[in-house]
Design brief:
The protein has 363 residues and is an alpha/beta fold. 25% of the residues lie in helices and 26% in strands. The chain is built from six helices and 19 strands.
């Protein structure tokens, strides 16, 4: 594409914002259409960067996640330098305690093998763990980013580089002519551009026929009392078998998350919050003494195979960047890079091949 080419990004979450920034830096004229900035899935995430702790199977998805994790330090530095807003990036490492394993089951030939800690070692390494913890893996290369701070940083950066951000604009239909998007129908009238990128997460199926459904996740946070913040009880993420616990440097501790196939049902529920509290106190009992700070919920965009949908669509001028499920924050840097290169340079990285929408077509 040529400098000044008009591109519309549909969706104002981390994926949409980051992709818009990359394209703007390449010279595109970019407009971001956002239905409701506050409802973006990233606001409800925990911000873990945990491809190994999540035990993602070897293959295309793990390759994509590791590539994105490796991009994070430099990418975050770029975004923060543009925005002047700290994102809370913290390569604190992730500890994955186990209630069922007392010995490492992994082969020592595994190139991604983490350090195994037996029962005495893991309790020495992290005091306060529940008595049921028998061992666990330590992943020093992993970490976290403060999802809400990242959203603020991306939002400011997008405007700083000259992207046009339109909040409150809902795309209600996509109109096609001869295999191309002709225009978008919105609550503010028709909008058109040379190219379009769909990054609407859990709402994507409302615009095009791809198999993405919302998976509701409830979360909560507690806060460490101010007098204890000089010596936080947690200095690393706990990725348990039932729960994850993510300490923030400002004294908040994030607990998540339920996984519910209930469509777009809103609100926290007593059952959901009870599940989070029970599992969190089993893994890390000191949390029971921390004041409850906040509860919230969000919707992850889930595909049948729980892998994202990335790359070209059936329309020549519509590109897809959606369906990231529980890895949207982790995959933001690599998605932005790959999609920007595909749209601007017409270069499809080999990493994209496994994530085409066509994998869901009938044989």
């Amino acid at each position: 594409m040529q400098p000044g080419s008009e591109i519309i990004v549909i969706g104002g979450g981390t994926i949409g914002l980051a992709t818009a920034i990359e394209l703007r830096l390449l010279g595109a004229a970019v407009t971001i259409l956002c239905k409701d900035f506050k409802s973006a899935a990233a606001h409800a995430a925990a911000g873990m960067l945990a491809p190994q702790a999540e035990r993602i199977e070897p293959g295309a998805m793990l390759d994509l996640c590791l590539a994105s994790r490796d991009l994070y330090p430099e990418w975050i530095g770029k975004i923060e330098s543009i925005s002047g807003v700290d994102s809370g990036y913290w390569p604190c490492g992730i500890l994955a305690p186990s209630y069922t394993q007392s010995e490492s089951p992994r082969s020592t030939t595994d190139p991604l093998a983490a350090e195994w800690l037996d029962t005495p070692s893991i309790h020495r390494y992290q005091s306060g763990l529940g008595e049921s913890v028998l061992g666990g893996y330590w992943y020093p290369a992993e970490g976290q980013v403060d999802n809400r701070a990242l959203m603020r940083s991306l939002y400011v950066a997008a405007q700083a580089v000259g992207a046009n951000f339109l909040d409150g604009v809902e795309v209600t239909n996509i109109h096609y002519t001869r295999g191309r998007v002709r225009y978008l129908e919105t609550n503010r009238g028709q909008i058109s551009a040379q190219h379009y990128i769909l990054a609407t997460g859990a709402w994507s199926q409302q615009l095009i026929p791809i198999p993405i459904v919302p998976r509701k996740g409830q979360m909560l946070s507690v806060v460490v009392p101010p007098q204890q913040r000089d010596n936080l009880p947690l200095q690393r993420v706990l990725f348990g078998e039932e729960i994850y616990i993510v300490p923030r440097q400002d004294g908040r501790i994030i607990v998540g998350a339920t996984s519910e196939d209930v469509g777009f049902a809103p609100h926290n529920t007593l059952q959901g919050v009870k599940q989070l509290m029970t599992n969190a106190m089993r893994l890390f009992p000191p949390l029971q003494n921390c004041p409850l700070h906040e509860t919230w919920w969000g919707y992850r965009p889930a595909t049948p195979d729980e892998l994202p949908i990335l790359g070209r669509s059936s329309a020549a001028n519509l590109t897809l960047a959606t369906g990231h499920y529980r890895n949207g924050i982790l995959l933001t840097p690599i998605t932005a890079k790959l999609i920007a290169d595909l749209v601007w340079h017409k270069q499809a990285d080999n990493l994209l091949a496994a994530f085409s929408w066509q994998r869901f077509e009938p044989c």
